[in-house]
Cupin domain-containing protein (Antarcticirhabdus aurantiaca), 115 residues
Amino acid sequence: MNRLNEPFAHDADLPWEPAGEGVTRKVLTYGPGVMMVRVRFEAGAVGPLHSHPHIQCSLVESGAFEIEIAGEPRRLTAGDSFLVPPDAIHGARALEAGVLLDVFTPMREDFVPAR
């Protein structure tokens, strides 16, 4: 189901999708210029180092993570946040089970079904 530009999203109506070993994601709201995604990690799960052309800002909603951005690791816990510049190599490791709330600009076309 494509929800492009829909103003409201009810969490209970949105599916969790596989996003790697021990990682699932839920695409929340989005439009061409922005996208919000909740990413759930089991303890020990890894979001491998990668890059993308989007600006990403993220909030640690729960849990504890080691976040690496451009070679600099940092331990972050609930309430902490981070910013990933375009094309910066970054990744995450869940030190304990938790959830990240990611916002991308522009939207991640690769996270939604073809329009």
